[in-house]
Structure formats: C-alpha cells, structure tokens
Write a structure and sequence with these properties.
Helix content is about 40%, strand content about 10%. It is of the alpha/beta class and about 300 residues long. The protein has a 7-stranded parallel β-sheet. A two-stranded antiparallel ribbon has the order 1-2. The model is unreliable at about 1-15 (pLDDT under 50).
C-alpha cells in the first residue's frame, strides 16, 4: 500500500516519497537535444503537482541543472520542498573525483549560489575518490550541517565498505544508488546495514532507462546491450504480466512500477526523471495507484531473480 509521508530518521523533516530526478534538466553533457526552457517548466510542473523532493547534481550540466532549478523555484515557499544535490567531480582538475573536505565545503557554497537558496536539504558525495578517508569527508559535511548550510548528509555510489567508513561516526543520513526491479543487488549488499543504522535509501534509474516503462517488445533487445536475449525476454514477459494490475488501476505499467517503489518500506523517495512537463504529470499519476499487498508481492516475485 502507499506509505504516508513519514518522519525521516535522523533528520528533522518530512518528505514525500515521490520526487523528481533532474539529469535531463540542464544536463547537456549527458543528453542531446535538451531545452532549458523545458527544464524550467519541468521543475515548475513538479512543484505545482505537489512533488516535494528535487534531486540534482553538479554533474548535471556542470552546474546548469542547479542554475535552472534556482530560477524555477522562485516564488514557491522554500519550506514546501526539499532539494538534494551532489558533488565530487572537480572542475579545476578535469572533473576527477575529489572528496577532500576543502573541496566539498567549496562545492556546497557553489551549489547554494547556483540554487539561490540558503540551505540544501541533502548534500551527497556523488562518487567516492580513491584517496580521501570517507569519515573525514563526511565530518566536513557535518560541520556544514551544524551551521545549517545543509540539513542531511548523503553518499552516492559507495560500496558497503565505503559506506561503513563514511558512517564511522554515525553521520550519514542517506545513501543513493542504482536500484530498480531489474537491478536489485543492493537489497543484499547494503540494505541490511542501512536498516540497522537508520540510513535512508534513494534509488536512481527507477525505470531502468525506460526499459520498465512497458513500451518495448522482445524485438528491441539490441537497444539494451546490457541484457542477454533470454534475460531481456524474461523482463518483457514479466512486464506483460504486470499489465492486468495496471489496467485495474487505470494506470500505465511505468506508473505501476513507480507505485511499487513508493510502497516499498525500504525506499525513502523515488526520483524518476523527466525531460518534459507532461512526463512529470505522468509520474505524479503513480500516486493514485494503491497496490494491494497481493499486487505488491506479485510484482516483487516476478522480478525476484534480478
């Protein structure tokens, strides 16, 4: 069933479980054919629709996504939504990964300026570097948390050992990582530790780059080179089996998949992306899908092998 907004452990605010990922808002270095005006309208549509979490990063357009968000949020009460951003790529060193405390502190200040806001709700170390002790990196962010510049500390793309090192002093609030119905490794590798330590989990790529939208057929396997022909066919056939659940709720397969994440108690927020405002509206419609326990289990079991 759909979860009510819940008090997030270790940080004193509530957040809706449906957010928006913004790598297609200003992320010209990541995607071709993006229009900044569309990105601006995507953010406004999200806020107008009641979405309460905007997830961005320096790497999305090398700061451009943050700039567009900073313009789009003007006129909206800041307390009504949360902003999460990330940094690790050093613009002064060919975008090499950097978790140095001084770099992270400067990255927060730079992000605050681009976002035109006084605080960041969640600041993630986007990727681990190979040299900085992770507890020292997090300690630097904790100093900023104590000053109010950021309100929660996150790490992204960290393996279990790196998460443990980062959380040595119990200061990590969030972990963001690759997770969806066809990429479920983290359920075994990091979720037990996160649950034990009251750390929230946010997945990225919830629709597996479009694979889980239901718009592809078994003949489209060449568009997803990650999968063998056999595995791809299993995924497509399983999505067909979800279709009766979707039809019962007058929803698309994509909305039903997003509803499954929303219903998952181990997931703090779901952040599907959008290139156009109408895609935001399609994502928001997932909130109308209230899966029964049996429907939830059916979807869970269909993709259990992944």
């Amino acid at each position: 069933m759909l979860m009510d907004p819940e008090q997030v452990t270790k940080v004193n605010f509530q957040a809706s479980k449906l957010g928006i990922g913004t790598n297609k808002v200003g992320g010209h270095n990541l995607f071709d054919g993006l229009d900044d005006h569309n990105g601006y309208e995507v953010i406004k549509e999200a806020l107008d629709s009641g979405i309460q979490m905007i997830d961005t990063a320096y790497m999305y357009g090398l700061g451009r996504s943050e700039q567009i968000i900073g313009e789009a949020i003007k006129g909206y009460p800041r307390e009504n939504f949360k902003i999460a951003t990330k940094a690790a790529q050093d613009p002064d060193n060919h975008l090499s990964l950097n978790n140095d405390p001084a770099f992270l502190k400067k990255a927060v200040d730079d992000a605050l300026r681009r976002l035109q806001t006084d605080y960041i709700d969640i600041f993630y170390i986007h990727f681990p570097d190979e040299r900085t002790p992770k507890d020292e990196a997090v300690a630097a962010l904790n100093e900023l948390k104590n000053t109010g510049k950021i309100r929660a500390i996150g790490v992204s793309n960290f393996n279990l050992l790196q998460i443990k090192e980062a959380n040595k002093n119990g200061q990590v609030d969030y972990v963001e990582d690759h997770y969806n119905l066809v990429h479920r490794d983290v359920e075994k590798t990091i979720w037990p530790y996160l649950k034990e330590n009251h750390i929230q989990f946010v997945p990225y790529f919830p629709l597996a780059s479009g694979l889980l939208t239901g718009k592809y057929t078994a003949q489209d396997t060449t568009q997803f080179s990650e999968w063998s022909t056999e595995s791809f066919e299993v995924i497509i056939n399983n999505l067909k089996k979800i279709k009766p659940i979707s039809e019962k709720h007058q929803a698309t397969i994509a909305q039903t998949v997003v509803a499954w994440y929303i219903a998952n108690p181990e997931i703090s927020a779901v952040i599907p992306g959008a290139r156009l405002p109408e895609q935001v509206a399609n994502n928001v419609a997932a909130l109308k899908v209230t899966l029964s326990p049996q429907e939830y289990q059916t979807i869970d079991q269909l993709f259990g092998q992944f």
